[in-house]
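User: I'm curious whether this sequence folds into something compact or stays loose and floppy. Could you predict its structure so I can see for myself?
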Amino acid sequence: MFNRDKLYASNPATASSHLNLLAYSVFPSIRSRVAENPGITVTLLAAFLWDREPEVRASVANNPKVTMEMLTWLSNDECVDVRYSLAEDPALPTALLRKLSNDSNCYVAERARRTLISLKRELSTTSTYARIAA
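Assistant: Here's the prediction. I'll summarize afterward.
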């Protein structure tokens, strides 16, 4: 049952009614997969911001329907692990990475700085290749 529920929770083709049921699973790993599933509603995604498990809250950021407001909320999460998860995500908006680079937790701040440096390096390399190609 557990493994089958994990598969349903991860599958974008799973009916939204089934995803709504899985959202109440006692297993955080299943709720986490539901939170990442692009087939859920924005309302359900927002509800996961209040989940008691950091793993589930961090998974909200991996959903393509996540809003800037949700990401901002997560960047202020009480759990260091949630903020660290955001800080290592190169797809996070630069403004939030800058905010996290000043986080009260030194590990979160350093991780965000490294992500920003990596993005800057990537942008510089892309610009160089564009100049060479032109």
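Summary: The chain has two domains: 1-66, 67-134. The chain has a mean pLDDT of 93.
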